[in-house]
């Protein structure tokens, strides 16, 4: 059986909930690069997949979700520490990312986004040709010396 015994903590919790109701709660996240894509994990435990809303506008990714409160008339809450209500997080995406091909997956309370690096922004090798110094010079008529074209 669970028992409440810390009355001061309960007052702190009530005050915190009153302040939180005025603004959406931020969503914890991890982000990293994995090869040619960026991966972002958002913690959304207990959130119904249908309540998750993703939107990209001008390279700003907005994640919104909502977790419903436990509401039953015959329910007596003993401990109520899990946050409920609206959750939101905005992430600024660089111009080098392909926002048209974002993939999203929600499993085990974690929303995972995979954002590929845009093709034109990917690192690529440039080959260096080898030639003798005189091969790249072109003589232009009317000039005393040869000019080098680049």
TrEMBL record:
Stretches that traverse the bilayer: none
Family: Belongs to the small heat shock protein (HSP20) family.
Domain (SHSP) ranges: 20-131
One Pfam family, short name: HSP20
Region described as Disordered: spans on this chain: 126-150
PANTHER family, per the entry: HEAT-SHOCK PROTEIN 20 FAMILY MEMBER
Biased composition (Basic and acidic residues): 126-137
Protein name per Swiss-Prot or TrEMBL: Hsp20/alpha crystallin family protein
InterPro entries xref list: A-crystallin/Hsp20_dom (IPR002068), HSP20-like_chaperone (IPR008978), Small_HSP (IPR031107)
Organism superkingdom: Bacteria
Annotated organism of origin: Nocardiopsis exhalans
């Amino acid at each position: 059986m669970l028992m409440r015994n810390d009355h001061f903590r309960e007052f702190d919790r009530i005050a915190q909930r009153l302040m939180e109701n005025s603004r959406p709660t931020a969503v914890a996240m991890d982000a990293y690069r994995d090869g040619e894509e960026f991966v972002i994990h958002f913690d959304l435990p207990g959130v119904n997949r249908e309540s998750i809303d993703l939107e990209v506008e001008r390279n700003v990714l907005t994640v919104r979700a909502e977790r419903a409160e436990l509401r039953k008339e015959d329910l007596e809450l003993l401990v109520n520490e899990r946050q409920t209500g609206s959750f939101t997080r905005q992430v600024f995406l660089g111009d080098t990312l392909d926002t048209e091909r974002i993939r999203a997956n929600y499993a085990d309370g974690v929303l995972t986004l995979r954002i590929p690096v845009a093709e034109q922004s990917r690192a690529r090798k440039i080959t260096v040709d080898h030639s003798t110094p005189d091969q790249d010079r072109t003589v232009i008529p009317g000039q005393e010396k040869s000019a080098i074209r680049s």
